[in-house]
Design brief:
elongated; 15 helices; Rossmann fold; single chain; 11-stranded mixed beta sheet; Alpha-Beta Plaits; binds L-homoserine; 17 strands
């Protein structure tokens, strides 16, 4: 059978990895797909670089629309990124009846509803394994491998840049700013790392996992997002003393009242495997009612790891493209609304309605009665304290013997209740600095 023909939009790090792996493993991939898969056309503004990567047998153009206009192209791989031109090209590819493979988490997290609806109407597939956790096949696991389960929660380290920074902060005892500069110098962090360090990239990925896990539409605008920029070395050290590591987690949970969707730094028990995921590696935990807790670990970015996910999608599409669209695996795991309301409208809960436990650090005056007053306020809100640690401020390079760091771990409580307690604590004259609040997840 004639090979399936693929057009590639954007041949940077992931695109070149995809081309190279497809070529290197072509025989094995063909045996798996049942048909050859060939990139026959590449669009990139840097045509000389593209030509150097793909050689003379592949058509290179600088106009992506020339790829979409080519009737021989069956699948378009979009590796341009962002919401701008990439969105227009994906919608145009769908309208032209082409299947789409993309690594663009931002595009799907924000415009996924429109894109998946257009694809369903046209009867084409939009595959996005590479959009979440790079080479880890977490989309496949959630959508297919765990399909028997009522999924209860998903929690993942889904941004390698921030995990690298947190690992370095812990190893070297440094604050965020110093480590970020070093990470940029070494090329681990982008020159503009905003999406990574502010948690936006992780929230795009968590949004996609949430939709697949719970059968809800993608709702990036409802995600709670907090990055790692305010974390200090002292909190990482105190967490360690209490038996925890701090990780930036993307979390989505099913509750009786709705779905939690949040990204923020989190204390995780040091004994959990996920707490020991270091450097730029990614890991995702999924809790299903039948399977229990599962863990997926691997490289979340990089040329060939991400290419591995892109090519898995190419193989899936090659296997399934002759199947009646209604018999394919749905884009987001659940059948769309047109089929007996299979997608649900379970609401995404506002952060005030999330229930979790907390690490609080208060710089307080070292005077009689301060601890009792602080714990009294916490207790009168009905919040149960799990552990208290007091460390002299001079031990942490603070303001000398007159102040001390008070660290409190709480049991589960409503975020709204905690917000009110924090406002009350912050107003105490004996609380000398802004209170640090980091959420805590036991993940058991
Ligand atoms: N910038 C991401 C990370 C990789 O640091 O994990 C692509 O999503």
């Amino acid at each position: 059978m004639k090979p399936i023909q693929v057009g590639l939009l954007g041949i940077g790090t992931v695109g070149s990895g995809t081309f190279n792996v497809l070529k290197r493993n072509q025989q094995e991939i063909k045996r798996r797909a049942g048909r050859g898969i060939e990139i026959t056309m590449v669009a990139d503004l840097d045509m000389a670089r593209a030509r150097a990567i793909v050689g003379p047998d592949v058509t290179v153009v600088n106009d992506a629309r020339a790829v979409l206009a080519n009737p021989d192209i069956d699948i378009v791989i979009e590796l341009i990124g962002g919401y701008g031109i990439a969105k227009a090209l994906v919608l145009e590819a769908i309208a032209a009846g082409k299947h789409v493979v993309t690594a663009n988490k931002a595009l799907l997290a924000v415009h996924g509803t429109e894109i998946f609806a257009a694809a369903s109407a046209k009867g084409v597939m939009v595959a996005f394994e590479a959009a979440v956790a790079g080479g880890i096949p977490i989309i496949k696991a959630l959508r297919e491998g765990l399909t028997a389960n009522s999924i209860q929660w998903v929690a993942g380290i889904i941004n390698g840049t921030t995990n690298f920074i947190l690992s370095e902060m812990r190893d070297k005892g440094l604050d965020f700013d110093a480590v970020l500069k070093e990470a940029q110098r070494l090329g681990y962090a982008e020159a503009d790392p905003t999406f990574d360090i502010e948690g936006v990239d992780a929230a795009h990925k968590a949004t996609l996992m949430s939709a697949i896990a719970f059968g809800i539409p993608v709702q990036f605008d409802k995600a709670y997002i907090e990055g790692i920029t305010k974390l200090g070395a002292a909190d990482i050290r105190y967490a360690e003393q209490l038996g925890y590591r701090i990780k930036l987690l993307g979390i989505t949970k099913r509750t009786a009242r709705g779905v939690e969707l949040r990204v923020h730094p989190c204390l995780v028990p040091a004994k959990r495997l996920i707490a020991n995921v270091e450097g730029a590696m990614n890991a995702v935990m999924v809790q299903g009612d039948a399977v229990g807790t599962t863990l997926y670990y691997g490289k979340g970015a990089g040329s060939e790891p991400t290419a591995s996910a892109v090519i898995a999608d190419l193989v899936d599409i090659t296997r399934l493209h002759t199947v009646d669209p209604l018999n394919r695996v749905p884009h987001l795991a659940f059948q769309p609304h047109t089929l007996d309301q299979a997608m649900t409208d379970l609401p995404v809960l506002p952060m005030e309605e999330v229930v979790t436990s907390y690490y609080l650090r208060l710089r307080v005056a070292d005077e009689a009665g301060v601890l009792a007053r602080v714990t009294g306020i916490v207790a009168s809100a009905g919040i149960s304290i799990d552990a208290v640690l007091q460390r002299e401020a001079d031990e942490v390079g603070g303001e000398g013997a007159t102040s001390t760091d008070l660290i409190i771990l709480t049991h589960d409580t409503l975020e709204g209740t905690m917000n009110a307690v924090l406002a009350e604590l912050q107003a105490l004259p004996t609380v000398l600095a802004p209170i640090t609040r980091i959420r805590k997840e036991e993940l058991n």
